[in-house]
């Protein structure tokens, strides 16, 4: 059953090659041009995971309009040109009927009156829809996995309004995955990360489990060509980690542990060192949050062993921060400080083409935020507040979830450092973000801050914060 708010994205016409973009590439290979795109992104503070395959898809006309990050990069590379000059079509033509209606403030409905956005199965969403969300390709975003011929692939839909799953397809035979399915799987992983950055995990986790089941059904059926097999394994593993992170950030630690272990098993079976490093990195973070600091250290060290040959100093830097969190959990100030120093030194070596795509969130703000958490665990509230403040100031606005997280960390550190008025002001800024961020981690931190501030209700601004916090509904 499909909702009237979701229209088919199948087009009877094949994609039209983007000849204008191809001319701009000139004599450079797709890989060389992709490297130039990544360099241009760094010049303006963007992080895009452009590779030769992405360039090929643009030139083939599969990507008719880039997302907003790529748009900013391309216009920076070719000043004075518009997207149309670069061979792309207007965004309104790509997003389809539902997005055009959203731009007008209305949604199609079978009945009169305003209709709430719905999933592909017809169920209403509890997360507000924001027309400004980045959607790179309307066809892929409306269905993460596709139909081929007369047989239905174990179908999951990752649409502009969220996730849905066609339960009727679950028991049908699954054909081997081809290029279209593998591309869609990789896009599903990217879109989950975008939505998490913007809104947090709580509203996404249940919907993301269905595409994961579909991914492993595809993995079980296998790839149609040997050349696709490693991408299929990597995509399924990365999706498992992404879903695991949504469980982790929404406080479902047992579910997260299971998803991370599934990704690790996939990495081991396929010999994928990059996927193994990612899985261990997240397992270290989870162990720290679950109060198992020694396990966090061991997992971080395992991640380091897997990542040594990958050529990414930024990845090794993040792994060192995961280890630092474990030492902090053991109250080992020396071990923590040494790991933090390694993380800082590795970070300063700069970004590289070998940096994994999933690390787009890892910049100076995240480094400062994770260091703040370490000092907080060690009880050094003044130093923790200093790093948390830097993290909140450095974070780009479109990472709303992380902005809320760093500011919540700041509020808690200030409260415990005996600065209740500053803590209340920071807490108010977090409350301002909760209409667009749904993260159990942020809610839990803010509740802890409120408890610390209770004895200080007469301090400037504290009473107002406590009253507003008490009246803020928690939407999940």
Describe the protein.
The structure is a single chain. This protein has 476 residues and is mainly alpha-helical. Among the domains are: 1-108, no CATH class; 143-271, no CATH class; 395-476. Helices cover 60% and strands 3% of the residues. The protein has 20 helices and four strands. The strands form two sheets. Strands 1-2 form a two-stranded antiparallel sheet. A hairpin with a 2-residue loop joins β1 and β2. α7 (179-199) packs parallel to α9 (226-249) and α12 packs antiparallel against α13 (313-329). It is globular. The model is unreliable at 1-12 and 95-172 (pLDDT under 50).
- The coarse overall form would be globular
| Uncertain parts | 1-12, 95-172
Order of helices and strands: HHHHHHEEEEHHHHHHHHHHHHHH
Number of helices: 20
CA radius of gyration = 23 Å
The termini sit apart by 25 Å
Structural class: mainly alpha
Average pLDDT metric: 77
Report the strand count.
4
Beta-strand content bin: under 5%
Query: How would you sum up the major sheet?
Result: 2 strands, antiparallel
Key traits:
476 residues, mainly alpha, two-stranded antiparallel sheet, 20 helices, 3% strand, globular, disordered N terminus
Task: Describe the secondary-structure layout.
Blueprint: H1 19-25, H2 30-43, H3 52-59, H4 68-77, H5 91-103, H6 138-142, E1 147-148, E2 151-152, E3 156-159, E4 162-165, H7 179-199, H8 205-221, H9 226-249, H10 253-270, H11 273-289, H12 293-307, H13 313-329, H14 333-348, H15 364-377, H16 381-394, H17 400-416, H18 420-433, H19 440-453, H20 462-470
Antiparallel strand pairs: 1-2, 3-4
InterPro entries: TPR-like_helical_dom_sf
Organism: Streptomyces thermoviolaceus subsp. thermoviolaceus
Biased composition (Basic and acidic residues): 124-139
């Amino acid at each position: 059953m499909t909702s009237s708010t979701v229209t088919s994205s199948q087009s009877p016409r094949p994609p039209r090659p983007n000849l204008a973009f191809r001319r701009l590439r000139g004599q450079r290979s797709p890989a060389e041009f992709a490297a130039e795109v990544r360099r241009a992104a760094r010049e303006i503070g963007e992080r895009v995971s452009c590779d030769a395959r992405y360039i090929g898809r643009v030139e083939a006309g599969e990507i008719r309009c880039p997302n907003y990050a790529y748009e900013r990069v391309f216009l920076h590379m070719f000043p004075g040109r518009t997207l149309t000059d670069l061979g792309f079509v207007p965004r309104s033509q790509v997003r389809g009927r539902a997005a055009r209606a959203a731009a007008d403030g209305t949604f199609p409905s079978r009945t009169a009156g305003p209709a709430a956005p719905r999933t592909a199965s017809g169920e209403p969403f509890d997360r507000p829809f924001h027309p400004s969300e980045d959607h790179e390709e309307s066809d892929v975003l409306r269905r993460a996995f596709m139909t081929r011929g007369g047989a239905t692939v174990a179908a999951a839909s990752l649409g502009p309004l969220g996730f849905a799953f066609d339960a009727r397809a679950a028991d049908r035979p699954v054909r081997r995955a081809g290029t279209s399915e593998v591309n869609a799987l990789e896009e599903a992983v990217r879109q989950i990360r975008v939505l998490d950055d913007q809104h947090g995990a709580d509203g996404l986790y249940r919907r993301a489990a269905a595409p994961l089941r579909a991914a492993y059904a595809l993995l079980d059926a296998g790839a149609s060509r040997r050349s696709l097999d490693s991408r299929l394994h990597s995509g399924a593993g990365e999706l498992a980690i992404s879903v695991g992170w949504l469980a982790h950030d929404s406080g479902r630690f047992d579910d997260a542990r299971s998803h991370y272990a599934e990704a690790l098993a996939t990495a081991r079976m396929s010999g994928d060192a990059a996927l193994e490093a990612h899985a261990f990195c997240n397992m270290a973070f989870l162990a720290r949050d679950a109060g198992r600091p020694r396990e966090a250290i061991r997992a971080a060290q395992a991640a380091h062993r897997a990542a040594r040959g990958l050529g990414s100093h930024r990845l090794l830097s993040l792994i060192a921060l995961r280890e630092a969190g474990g030492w902090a959990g053991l109250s080992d100030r020396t071990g923590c400080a040494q790991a933090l120093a390694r993380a800082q030194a590795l970070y300063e070596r700069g970004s590289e083409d070998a940096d994994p795509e999933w690390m787009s969130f890892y910049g100076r703000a995240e480094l400062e935020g994770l260091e703040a958490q370490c000092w907080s665990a060690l009880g050094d509230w003044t130093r923790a507040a200093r790093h948390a403040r830097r993290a909140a100031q450095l974070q780009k606005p479109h990472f709303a979830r992380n902005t809320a997280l760093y500011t919540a960390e700041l509020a808690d550190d200030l409260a415990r450092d005996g600065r209740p008025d500053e803590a209340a002001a920071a807490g108010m800024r977090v409350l301002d973000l909760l209409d667009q961020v749904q993260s159990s981690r942020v809610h839990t931190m803010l509740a802890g801050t409120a408890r610390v501030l209770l004895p200080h209700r007469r301090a400037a601004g504290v009473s107002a914060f406590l009253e507003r916090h008490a009246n803020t509904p928690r939407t999940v």
